Amino acid sequence: MTVDWHDQSPIYRQLKQKVLSMILDGILNPGDAVPSVRQVATEYQINPITVSKAYQELLEQELIEKRRGVGMFVTDTAFERLLISERERFLKEEWPATCERIRRLGLSLDDLMSGLNVSKVVPDRQGEQK
């Protein structure tokens, strides 16, 4: 896991987003162990409480689960739950601004489609382009 910290949001949110991206990209799959709090804190030289806060939010969203004495693991439904929530967030938060920019630039559907090879835009489960 590599992370480049920035000042726009708290580190725990950036760490949480990194784990979410790893789940969506198929790097972390259902049943996979999530790196331990101590391991992440040591590797990135951040406070273990910061890591715990990020993991606690993931636990509350039921994207990871704690197994007593063993560690934390990606839940069986994490990918599907995350995909649904990220699609909803994109459509509510990002898509309107994208549509407005398309309108402002005067781009037609043909303009947009000619800039894409549609067959290469459909991701598979691992996030790779088909």
Description:
With 130 residues, this protein is mainly α. Helices cover 53% and strands 8% of the residues. It has 5 helices and 3 strands. The protein has helices at residues 11-24, 37-44, 48-60, 78-105, 109-114, and strands at residues 33-34, 64-67, 71-74. The protein has a 3-stranded antiparallel sheet. β2 and β3 form a beta hairpin. α1 (11-24) crosses α3 (48-60) and α2 (37-44) crosses α3. The radius of gyration is 18 Å and the shape is elongated.
Secondary-structure topology with pairs:
Blueprint (H helix, E strand, L loop, with lengths): L10 H14 L8 E2 L2 H8 L3 H13 L3 E4 L3 E4 L3 H28 L3 H6 L16
Antiparallel strand pairs: 1-3, 2-3
Helix pairs in contact: 1-3, 2-3
Write out key terms for the chains shown.
3-stranded antiparallel beta sheet, mainly alpha, 3 strands, about 10% strand
Task: Summarize the structure in short.
The protein has 130 residues and is mostly helical. It has helices at residues 11-24, 37-44, 48-60, 78-105, 109-114, and strands at 33-34, 64-67, 71-74.
- The chain-level mean pLDDT equals 88
Backbone CA Rg = 18 Å
Taking pLDDT < 50 over at least 5 consecutive residues as the criterion, the unreliable ranges are: none
Describe the oligomeric state of these chains in a short phrase.
single chain
Structural class: mainly alpha
SSE sequence, one letter per element: HEHHEEHH
| Number of E strands | 3
Number of helices: 5
* Strand line-up of the largest beta sheet: 1-3-2
Overall helicity = 40-55%
State the distance separating the first and last CA atoms: 25 Å
Overall geometry comes to: elongated
